[in-house]
């Protein structure tokens, strides 16, 4: 069948599609009778046989690749066979939707998505290159050196030590428990648990700790965590904890095993010493883990937010340090780390600009704020506040004295919102306060581009911008952009 047809296509039907380009969300774009079809597991330039999976929307349909008729030169054997074309679409493991594409091409596709979103939604014309990080960056450099030396590198880096490029980076993994007790990931675009034999994106220690193939009957999910120090935690999440979000004040929401199957004692709110207290020598909370970034240690809840790629915390800290404009930075201003977590980026600013730096971390999770106050204890001008950023900024706008307003207008605001972005309300508040610069750490290119557009309408412009491949073999990309008053 072809895309030029007169008779209507019924769902589940096989259609032949020419893949034109990449869309946001890890799918590619084709056209069928003029209608946009988002196609999974394809590569731009390919011709594929695909099955229509969703025709419920009038403006676009969704389809899954069943067979590749004309392959792109960038197509490679899937890095995770459980997610590859060999399985029926409903059985393909989710979370590695670019795993069939050569890493370099994955990065250029992510760059295209960011560049396109910035142009269409942000009104910014800038080609963005997505940078490899950690071992993958070194592998690329080695391949370039080989090519320069005439060693005939073919563009597919061969990292040392037998490691497959773009694997072994995930230090946080959430697996789910199926009705038969089997533990596994969800299938792509569904909540069906599928069996897998391996977890190539996870660190080797987590892959081993996952004990794939076992059955679990007292939990609905299993969270796996490996710290930068190599400590592994396996946390079982019960149905009740999963429904309520389950976070105690410690941020803990499940039963945890440490190292080789040792189980942490049950916790209550009274177990929770403030992180400042813990730093001062009170007994450590068993739900606390330690992450190290360079010389600095951060304490946090074992299932609290932490950057997922093993090199992400260092990469983003370095980017925030290097991209923050020194000429616009005033250590005495009302500087902030919004959506601050346990203080990672506030510490980066403190490290760059010195002990007198004033900075307030604002975070909605009270447990994370407790840890942030301890992690930032060495800066006399640092504090951590539990609040929703939108409400916090609205209060600031309402209550700020003329002196506060001057300190806010001179301020640097680091913002690292969740995937949905900061949004119009927060961006407009920052613009009305007239802050000197916003260092925006973004995990969603479209939400970021939309917010850049709102900043531009409010009189800011996009200054430096870098993007990092902190989620190889997935469609995700992390950017750090600086917005300054135009
Ligand atoms: C992407 S994480 C960044 C954390 C921190 N910057 C880091 O790199 O470790 C976003 C954080 O924002 C918090 N958060 C989400 N929505 C929020 C809101 N409306 N107000 C304040 N914090 C929020 C989450 O709990 C999470 O800790």
UniProtKB/TrEMBL annotation:
<feature type="binding site">
    <location>
        <position position="339"/>
    </location>
    <ligand>
        <name>S-adenosyl-L-methionine</name>
    </ligand>
</feature>
<comment type="similarity">
    <text>Belongs to the class I-like SAM-binding methyltransferase superfamily. RNA M5U methyltransferase family.</text>
</comment>
<feature type="compositionally biased region" description="Low complexity">
    <location>
        <begin position="148"/>
        <end position="162"/>
    </location>
</feature>
<feature type="compositionally biased region" description="Low complexity">
    <location>
        <begin position="266"/>
        <end position="282"/>
    </location>
</feature>
<dbReference type="InterPro" id="IPR002792">
    <property type="entry name" value="TRAM_dom"/>
</dbReference>
<feature type="binding site">
    <location>
        <position position="363"/>
    </location>
    <ligand>
        <name>S-adenosyl-L-methionine</name>
    </ligand>
</feature>
<protein>
    <submittedName>
        <fullName>Class I SAM-dependent RNA methyltransferase</fullName>
    </submittedName>
</protein>
<dbReference type="Pfam" id="PF05958">
    <property type="entry name" value="tRNA_U5-meth_tr"/>
</dbReference>
<feature type="region of interest" description="Disordered">
    <location>
        <begin position="237"/>
        <end position="287"/>
    </location>
</feature>
<feature type="region of interest" description="Disordered">
    <location>
        <begin position="139"/>
        <end position="167"/>
    </location>
</feature>
<dbReference type="InterPro" id="IPR030391">
    <property type="entry name" value="MeTrfase_TrmA_CS"/>
</dbReference>
<keyword id="KW-0489">Methyltransferase</keyword>
<dbReference type="InterPro" id="IPR012340">
    <property type="entry name" value="NA-bd_OB-fold"/>
</dbReference>
<dbReference type="GO" id="GO:0032259">
    <property type="term" value="P:methylation"/>
</dbReference>
<feature type="domain" description="TRAM">
    <location>
        <begin position="8"/>
        <end position="67"/>
    </location>
</feature>
<dbReference type="InterPro" id="IPR010280">
    <property type="entry name" value="U5_MeTrfase_fam"/>
</dbReference>
<feature type="binding site">
    <location>
        <position position="416"/>
    </location>
    <ligand>
        <name>S-adenosyl-L-methionine</name>
    </ligand>
</feature>
<dbReference type="GO" id="GO:0008168">
    <property type="term" value="F:methyltransferase activity"/>
</dbReference>
<feature type="binding site">
    <location>
        <position position="307"/>
    </location>
    <ligand>
        <name>S-adenosyl-L-methionine</name>
    </ligand>
</feature>
<dbReference type="InterPro" id="IPR029063">
    <property type="entry name" value="SAM-dependent_MTases_sf"/>
</dbReference>
<keyword id="KW-0949">S-adenosyl-L-methionine</keyword>
<feature type="active site" description="Nucleophile">
    <location>
        <position position="443"/>
    </location>
</feature>
<keyword id="KW-0808">Transferase</keyword>
